[in-house]
Specification:
Blueprint (H helix, E strand, L loop, with lengths): L1 H8 L3 H8 L3 H8 L8 H15 L4 H13 L10 H59 L6 H18 L4 H17 L4 E6 L3 E7 L5 E6 L2 E5 L3 E6 L4 E4 L4 E3 L6 E6 L2 E5 L1 H7 L6
Antiparallel strand pairs: 1-4, 1-6, 2-3, 2-5, 5-8, 6-7, 8-9
Helix pairs in contact: 6-7
Length: 280
C-alpha cells in the first residue's frame, strides 16, 4: 500500500540500517525508487526484510519495480561456458566411478564362485576323514572301561560335522559386515549456513523446480544430498560442509549451486542459465 511506503519514508535511514542491517546506500535507493541501482534479487530480499520488521505491505512498490524491469528488459540470458566445462569433467568422473564399481562387483562374484567350488570339493574328503577317525576311536576303546572318553570324542565329531555341513557361516558373517558398511555409507550430509546479519535466502529445487524463500537471522541447516540453486541476499555469510568452511566477505548478492554435499559459487549468467533463464 502507498500509505505503508509513506510510513517507511518517515523512518530514519540510520534506524532502518541498525534494525535490518541493509546497507544505507541500498536503503536510500529503495526510498528514492532508484530501481536501476538494484537487481531483482536484492530488491525482493530487502523489501521482504522491511515488510517483516515493520509489519508493512509494500506490494505496490514491488509492482512498480516489476513494471520498471519489464520496460527496461532487465532479464538476460548470457551464454554459460565455464559451467559446461565443469559438466564435461563431471560426466567423465561419473563414468570412471561406474567402471570401477563394475570391476569391483565382477571381482567379488568371481571370488565367491571360486570359494564355493573349493568348499564343495573339500567337504566330502573332510567328512570321510572325520568318520574314519570316529570309527578308529570306537574300535580302540571297545574293551576300555572309560566310556566317558568315547562320549567326549563323539560330541567333538558331531560339532566338526555340523561346521562342515554349514560352509555358509563365514558368508553370513561377511554379509552382516556388508550391511553395516552400507548403512554407514548412507549417512546424510548436512550443510550449515551462518550469518550475523538478517539474510534473505531463495531456494530452488532442481529436481522438482519448486521454490521457497526464507529469512535467516543466525543459522540454517540444509540437506546436502539433493541438488539446489541458492540465492543469498548478501554475501556476509559462512557455509560449513563436511570437509571445509566457505565464506563470501562481500555485501552483494551471491549465487550458489548445492549438489551432493558440495557448494559451487556461480556467476550471475551461470545461475540464470541453470535456472531456465530466470533470476527468481
Amino acid at each position: 500500500m502507498s500509505d505503508d511506503f509513506d510510513k517507511l519514508k518517515l523512518l530514519n535511514t540510520e534506524q532502518i540500517f541498525e534494525k535490518t542491517h541493509i546497507t544505507k546506500r541500498n536503503i536510500n535507493n529503495i526510498l528514492s525508487k532508484s530501481f536501476e541501482k538494484l537487481d531483482k534479487i536484492q530488491f525482493n530480499g530487502f523489501v521482504s526484510i522491511l515488510e517483516r520488521e515493520y509489519s508493512l505491505n509494500l506490494q505496490e512498490l514491488r509492482d512498480e519495480y516489476q513494471e520498471y524491469a519489464i520496460n527496461n528488459d532487465e532479464i538476460s540470458e548470457p551464454e554459460l561456458r565455464s559451467i559446461s566445462n565443469n559438466t564435461g569433467k563431471s560426466r567423465g568422473l561419473f563414468w570412471i566411478v561406474i567402471i570401477a564399481l563394475i570391476i569391483i562387483v565382477a571381482t567379488r562374484l568371481i571370488y565367491n564362485t571360486y570359494t564355493s567350488k573349493q568348499n564343495s570339493q573339500t567337504q566330502p574328503v573332510l567328512g570321510l576323514n572325520a568318520t574314519a577317525r570316529l570309527n578308529n576311536t570306537t574300535a580302540i576303546d571297545t574293551n576300555s572301561t572309560n566310556s566317558t572318553a568315547i562320549t567326549a570324542n563323539s560330541k567333538k565329531s558331531k560339532v566338526s560335522n555340523m561346521l562342515l555341513a554349514n560352509p555358509n557361516i563365514n558368508k553370513t558373517l561377511t554379509h552382516k559386515n556388508d550391511i553395516n558398511t552400507t548403512v554407514a555409507a548412507k549417512k546424510v550430509k548436512t550443510i550449515r549456513l551462518l550469518t550475523k546479519a538478517k539474510l534473505w535466502l531463495g531456494i530452488t529445487n532442481m529436481k522438482t523446480w519448486k521454490q521457497q524463500q526464507k529469512i535467516v537471522t543466525s543459522s540454517l541447516d540444509l540437506n546436502g544430498t539433493g541438488k539446489y540453486l541458492l540465492i543469498l541476499g548478501h554475501g556476509m555469510v559462512q557455509i560449513k560442509t563436511d570437509d571445509k568452511n566457505i565464506s563470501f566477505p562481500q555485501p552483494k548478492t551471491v549465487f550458489l549451486m548445492l549438489k551432493n554435499g558440495k557448494v559451487t559459487q556461480l556467476t550471475h549468467s551461470q545461475f540464470v542459465k541453470l535456472n531456465k533463464g530466470k533470476l527468481w
